[in-house]
């Protein structure tokens, strides 16, 4: 069960990040089309948000590795 939980954490984290990046990119294109003079500012803020968005699955991978290598062998 620990391995299934770890796989779900990694898989759902990746799925959520993919959806988040799609929404973020779409909103960047939409707002740049509305106000082209703010493109550099919007791009900077988008890259900042992309970095924060990318941290979520990395934390999930860390917790999943903890489950696999520390909790998993104790349960076997």
Automatic annotation (TrEMBL):
<dbReference type="InterPro" id="IPR005953">
    <property type="entry name" value="ATP_synth_csu_bac/chlpt"/>
</dbReference>
<keyword id="KW-0406">Ion transport</keyword>
<keyword id="KW-0446">Lipid-binding</keyword>
<dbReference type="GO" id="GO:0033177">
    <property type="term" value="C:proton-transporting two-sector ATPase complex, proton-transporting domain"/>
</dbReference>
<dbReference type="InterPro" id="IPR038662">
    <property type="entry name" value="ATP_synth_F0_csu_sf"/>
</dbReference>
<dbReference type="InterPro" id="IPR035921">
    <property type="entry name" value="F/V-ATP_Csub_sf"/>
</dbReference>
<feature type="domain" description="V-ATPase proteolipid subunit C-like">
    <location>
        <begin position="4"/>
        <end position="67"/>
    </location>
</feature>
<dbReference type="Pfam" id="PF00137">
    <property type="entry name" value="ATP-synt_C"/>
</dbReference>
<keyword id="KW-0812">Transmembrane</keyword>
<comment type="similarity">
    <text>Belongs to the ATPase C chain family.</text>
</comment>
<feature type="transmembrane region" description="Helical">
    <location>
        <begin position="6"/>
        <end position="26"/>
    </location>
</feature>
<protein>
    <recommendedName>
        <fullName>ATP synthase subunit c</fullName>
    </recommendedName>
</protein>
<keyword id="KW-0138">CF(0)</keyword>
<keyword id="KW-0375">Hydrogen ion transport</keyword>
<keyword id="KW-1003">Cell membrane</keyword>
<comment type="function">
    <text>F(1)F(0) ATP synthase produces ATP from ADP in the presence of a proton or sodium gradient. F-type ATPases consist of two structural domains, F(1) containing the extramembraneous catalytic core and F(0) containing the membrane proton channel, linked together by a central stalk and a peripheral stalk. During catalysis, ATP synthesis in the catalytic domain of F(1) is coupled via a rotary mechanism of the central stalk subunits to proton translocation.</text>
</comment>
<dbReference type="InterPro" id="IPR000454">
    <property type="entry name" value="ATP_synth_F0_csu"/>
</dbReference>
<keyword id="KW-1133">Transmembrane helix</keyword>
<dbReference type="GO" id="GO:0045259">
    <property type="term" value="C:proton-transporting ATP synthase complex"/>
</dbReference>
<dbReference type="InterPro" id="IPR002379">
    <property type="entry name" value="ATPase_proteolipid_c-like_dom"/>
</dbReference>
<dbReference type="GO" id="GO:0008289">
    <property type="term" value="F:lipid binding"/>
</dbReference>
<feature type="transmembrane region" description="Helical">
    <location>
        <begin position="47"/>
        <end position="69"/>
    </location>
</feature>
<keyword id="KW-0472">Membrane</keyword>
<keyword id="KW-0066">ATP synthesis</keyword>
<dbReference type="GO" id="GO:0046933">
    <property type="term" value="F:proton-transporting ATP synthase activity, rotational mechanism"/>
</dbReference>
<feature type="site" description="Reversibly protonated during proton transport">
    <location>
        <position position="54"/>
    </location>
</feature>
<keyword id="KW-0813">Transport</keyword>
<dbReference type="GO" id="GO:0005886">
    <property type="term" value="C:plasma membrane"/>
</dbReference>
<comment type="function">
    <text>Key component of the F(0) channel; it plays a direct role in translocation across the membrane. A homomeric c-ring of between 10-14 subunits forms the central stalk rotor element with the F(1) delta and epsilon subunits.</text>
</comment>
<dbReference type="InterPro" id="IPR020537">
    <property type="entry name" value="ATP_synth_F0_csu_DDCD_BS"/>
</dbReference>
């Amino acid at each position: 069960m620990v391995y299934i939980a770890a796989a779900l954490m990694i898989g759902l984290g990746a799925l959520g990040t993919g959806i988040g990046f799609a929404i973020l990119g779409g909103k960047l294109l939409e707002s740049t089309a509305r106000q082209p003079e703010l493109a550099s500012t919007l791009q900077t803020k988008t890259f900042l948000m992309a970095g924060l968005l990318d941290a979520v699955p990395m934390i999930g991978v860390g917790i999943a590795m903890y489950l696999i290598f520390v909790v998993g062998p104790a349960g076997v």
